[in-house]
UniProtKB/TrEMBL annotation:
<protein>
    <recommendedName>
        <fullName>Sushi repeat-containing protein SRPX2</fullName>
    </recommendedName>
</protein>
<dbReference type="GO" id="GO:0045202">
    <property type="term" value="C:synapse"/>
</dbReference>
<feature type="domain" description="HYR">
    <location>
        <begin position="146"/>
        <end position="231"/>
    </location>
</feature>
<dbReference type="InterPro" id="IPR000436">
    <property type="entry name" value="Sushi_SCR_CCP_dom"/>
</dbReference>
<dbReference type="GO" id="GO:0005737">
    <property type="term" value="C:cytoplasm"/>
</dbReference>
<feature type="domain" description="Sushi">
    <location>
        <begin position="52"/>
        <end position="105"/>
    </location>
</feature>
<keyword id="KW-0770">Synapse</keyword>
<dbReference type="InterPro" id="IPR043555">
    <property type="entry name" value="SRPX-like"/>
</dbReference>
<keyword id="KW-0037">Angiogenesis</keyword>
<dbReference type="InterPro" id="IPR003410">
    <property type="entry name" value="HYR_dom"/>
</dbReference>
<keyword id="KW-0677">Repeat</keyword>
<dbReference type="Pfam" id="PF13778">
    <property type="entry name" value="DUF4174"/>
</dbReference>
<dbReference type="GO" id="GO:0098609">
    <property type="term" value="P:cell-cell adhesion"/>
</dbReference>
<keyword id="KW-0768">Sushi</keyword>
<dbReference type="GO" id="GO:0009986">
    <property type="term" value="C:cell surface"/>
</dbReference>
<keyword id="KW-1015">Disulfide bond</keyword>
<dbReference type="GO" id="GO:0005576">
    <property type="term" value="C:extracellular region"/>
</dbReference>
Amino acid sequence: MAGRSGHRPCLGWFSPSLLPPLPLARRAPPSSPCPPAVPQWCATLNIHRGEATCYSPRGSSYRSSLGTRCELSCTRGYRLVGPSAVHRICMEDGHWSGSEPICVGKFSPTLAGHAGADHPQLLPCPQGSPHIQRGPFRHLPPSGPCPYVEPPKIRCPDSRERIAEPGKLTATVYWDPPRVRDSADGVIKRVMLRGPEPGSEFPEGEHVIRYTAHDQAYNRASCKFSIRVQVRRCPVLKAPQNGYISCTSDGNNYGATCEYLCDGGYERQGTSLRVCQSTQQWTGSQPLCTPMQINTDVNSAASLLDQFHEKRRLLVISAPDPSNRYYKMQISMLQQAACGLDLRHITTVELVGQPPHEVGRIRDGPPRTCRRFLHLTRSHFNAVLLDKAGADRERYIAPVSPDELFVFIDTYLLSEREAARRAQSGDPCE
């Protein structure tokens, strides 16, 4: 249908005025009141070392039609230079708005001089330049503008060696972060660490720490350094005969402490503790474990029992005479279990007879005051078990079997150290 002016309505026509205002090129006056019904096409927009992403109001099939708006970008390692360097629009006269920008490389100062922020003086890459023989731009010809692919400069700390701390098998190591700079614009995008952080504990051995730096052009450079941790050790100590050693840490590393202990019935002669020094030598000298010397020529039962304090357990047996049936039965059972008694550090004390013919013996004989001190009767068989602290732990009015005695001691009287040693060495009496 014709309008009042006698002209046909304009169909299928798009005006660039509907777009946001952007710089436009010269516009030719239309030869008729309405543009042509068919779209006017601009030349395909190409940019060397870049790409144009276009959007047409007529749809995706019209990539260069009237009103098409294109956004320009460069490939990695290049940047846009020139006016109207971001957007261009297909105009009515069949030309693109603005002037054609170019993609220039983010080039090294050693390869190009800058005549201005937007108009650098480009220098071609020299033939055989390492800039175009590696990295993502190695396919480019050497005659074009040289893209910046030189990696950033990174320098790691020096390698170092540390001694493990006293009593430990590790060392805490600190270091300063690497020094990184970019020779193009000085901007480092990120620095990544591969390995433990500074201030971490490192075990014995050699450890490699790596750093990788990336610049804005995604070029990268790496460096590494090593940390070596040494554990100083002393010679391995040997346990004394009839004794054993209990050590801290790893047993013979710098700062470890070893304690010498003797089996039941033996006493330590010499130093009890030795320490591994930084010179890798032990303090002191090795002690000996010698049989206990029991002094029966004392004035009281307490003086006699003090000799066994923290060394031996005592099974004190009292009977009216050597012919007592319970006494003979008890002694017979204990003689057959001598290994188990010694394994559990048990010394047997026998108090036999009545005045004036009573006899007390630890193989030889304690003073007669033991019965009174331990509240034992002379009139019939009875026995008492004392622990290593001298405490009364169990009493018997009939002979006790070795198995019953051993179960009670293993269950209630063994120290943690004794239990651990038994678990390690097993039962030699089996």
